[in-house]
Amino acid sequence: MKTKRMTAAAAALMLAASVMQAQTAFASTHEEFTDIALETGAPRSSEFVSVNVPITVDGKELRLVATGLTEDNKDAFVKAIEDNYSLDDNTPLYIHDDAFVDSEKFDTSIPFNDSGLCWASSCSNILWLTDWAQNYSDPLTGKAFTSEDDLFDLYTESFINKGAVTDAGIEWFFNNLFFMSGAGNHTFPLNQDNPALGVEKGFVASRIIDVYDVTNDSSAISKLLDLDRESENACGAGLAIGNASDENIEMSTHALTAEGIIYDPNEQDLASRYKAIILIDSDNDADAEFELDTEAPLDREKIHDCKSARPNSYTVYDLNNKTLGDGHNVWEIVGYGSDPTYPYIIYDIISLPLYDPELIAENTETEGTKQSSENVDLVIDYMFTTNRSEPMMLPYKEMVENDATRYFGQGDEINLNVFIGNKAGAPLTEDYADGNTITFDYTVTNKADGSVVSTGSEKLSGDIYNNSETAFLLHLNSKDGKTEEWAPGDYTVTLTINADRAITESYYLNNEDESFDFTILRNAIEPETPADSEEEPEDSTPADTETENDSGSQSAPVTTSNPVTGAAAGALALAAVGISAAVISKKNRKQ
User: Fold this and answer.
1) Is 155:282 a contact under the CB 8 Å cutoff?
2) What's the confidence (pLDDT) of residue 55?
3) 95-140: per-residue pLDDT in tens?
4) Is residue 299 helix, strand or coil?
């Protein structure tokens, strides 16, 4: 989903620097940027327009798509780019205007403030640019949101100062559910039990948020064309970015907001089509040096005034399409960061459609209780086929690329590694189930002719704690030591959970089917060797990992916990019901 693989060498490097904040693009002086002050006098507005217009650059006709503009500043913005952007110059354009959308951190270094909340700033910008925030009031103050800065205040008052991912933050805004995949040490809400939080509690926002893995599909950069508010799939977009080397991708460490893109409409070659990206960054105008009021260091009004007084800026960076040694074709943000040996690349695009009451109606829970503090909320977080005999221990989605077995020999045992998440505040335990049985229902289909080669239903056994996830292993073609042989070809396995709703949930709408493709070859193949991997929340750095590994049975779940639930409690609870498990805990990371 949002964060990426990290090699063993990179992990060692980052561990050595774990006490430091991940550095971002540039200092507030902008000495290496072309500084352009529009000074349009355009008033701050809650209504935005976009542009999708031709521009002439170095005698060549390109096209600019950009959002977050007003009728009063859009022409000046287009002219600033046309007059100053060049295909022959990699110097970024730093364009500022008071009416731009740009929520700023208070600082980029103080650990008790907002230095790690780049993802929350991105959430604030996206919700404001897409008109969602304008239709709600701040649940903590009861006052209507008047800017993206107001919205960022809500996040900074509601979360500890640690990294996260943007899509999880957007979902929290609507229904007060905050769930992060993986066992990493990340942020969590300070007052998730506050009944006031969640502006649209029945709305299952995760159903309308899309996340595009740009490192595995570089053509997904075209999603940014939908920043045009008049497009059929108009959206606001966040970015997960991070370093890479010439040899491999590593991990995403920072969250931004996409404001626009410049491309050549006459160029069909992907690498040559997209020329530049326009970004909104919470760090570029934040101040690492400021005087703290010792009597009221966290005074909300003072901090808000300080942040909102800083320049609102959009920055244009060249894009460079390149293929790394590990085969990933990536988009480099040229000039972002100070070390060209480890350039910043785009890892993911997070897309949220424009505000639409029909979207709310279509995705509002009608049968679940919507009581997330009292009931569970189960989702298939992700799954993959494997030749392992036990479930994968670390629940990092990006390990799928390295650990998943996508090719099997004819007659091989084919298993399915599934991670089930519980997004709500109540744990799924034997007492909660109250004698009811929750099942996995799966179907394996031959993609060539659509025929079903196998169906099955297996009982989910073991606890799934609140705000955590558990791994299970399903045997697709083997039972009682016997393996069924399937013909060579391409297959899809589709999984459903709690289809009969035997277990009461706060939300059923997100119990969506998940699928995974695999191939059976005529000849046997060697098992794949797992590669070192890691997943990190944006605006975070890795820390030491402690593991406790007990040999499990073939159906043994693996439970992971975040700082809210506690790994030790999970281990004791699993042992109490006779289930072997590997429980992962991580020491606190420092920004």
Assistant:
1) no
2) 98
3) 999 999 999 887 665 556 788 999 999 999 999 999 999 999 999 9
4) coil
